[in-house]
Amino acid sequence: MTDVTVAPTADVDPRATIGAGTRIWHLAQIREGATLGGNCTVGRGAYVGPGVSIGDNVKLQNHALVYEPARLADGVFVGPAAVLTNDEYPRAVTPDGRLKSGDDWTAVGVTVGEGAAIGARAVCVAPVTVGRWALVAAGAVVTTDVPDFALVVGVPARRVGWVGRAGRPLTRKGDGVWVCPETGATYTETGGALAEG
């Protein structure tokens, strides 16, 4: 791990792969087999589970919890205390009362597309996919897949609009065309999906 900053109180398993320029702050834990790309920031108390795959330029804010087998693409933002779960039917014990072990369940992951953002204290309930450049509002609970560029809010999360690459809500121009108020980029809505251009 060259050109990597790891706080003395962080716990990084030697079997994890950490890309150049990545910074891991106080009390963060990176488990065995996890892969983090280059120039990532892992905030205080964040957790990255075994075998999790994280792309380049990803930010995990303080106390974000990313459980295996999550997959995060390049440029993803996970806000403070957000949780990406991994158990569809959580129980501590089996039906006969025996403490569950790793062999008693199958982990399912959350997939987050390029540039997407998960707001503070949001929960993504696996297995779901959050699309490219989508925005999950703070405190939302995602229980179904989120389309590319969608803005979702609430419990359970529902789409209330579209956002562009800048993260700003898009303005409807008419005839299925949407415009980013910050960049001027245009997007086209067809059949409940949004595409650039």
TrEMBL record:
Protein name: Acetylglucosamine-1-phosphate uridylyltransferase
Matches recorded under Pfam families: Hexapep (PF00132), Hexapep_2 (PF14602)
Protein keywords: Nucleotidyltransferase, Transferase
Superkingdom as given in the UniProt entry: Bacteria
GO MF, one annotated term: nucleotidyltransferase activity
Matches recorded under InterPro entries: Hexapep (IPR001451), Trans_hexapeptide_repeat (IPR050179), Trimer_LpxA-like_sf (IPR011004)
Species whose genome carries this gene: Actinoplanes siamensis
Gene3D superfamilies for this protein: Hexapeptide repeat proteins (2.160.10.10)
Keyword Nucleotidyltransferase: yes
UniProt key word Transferase: yes
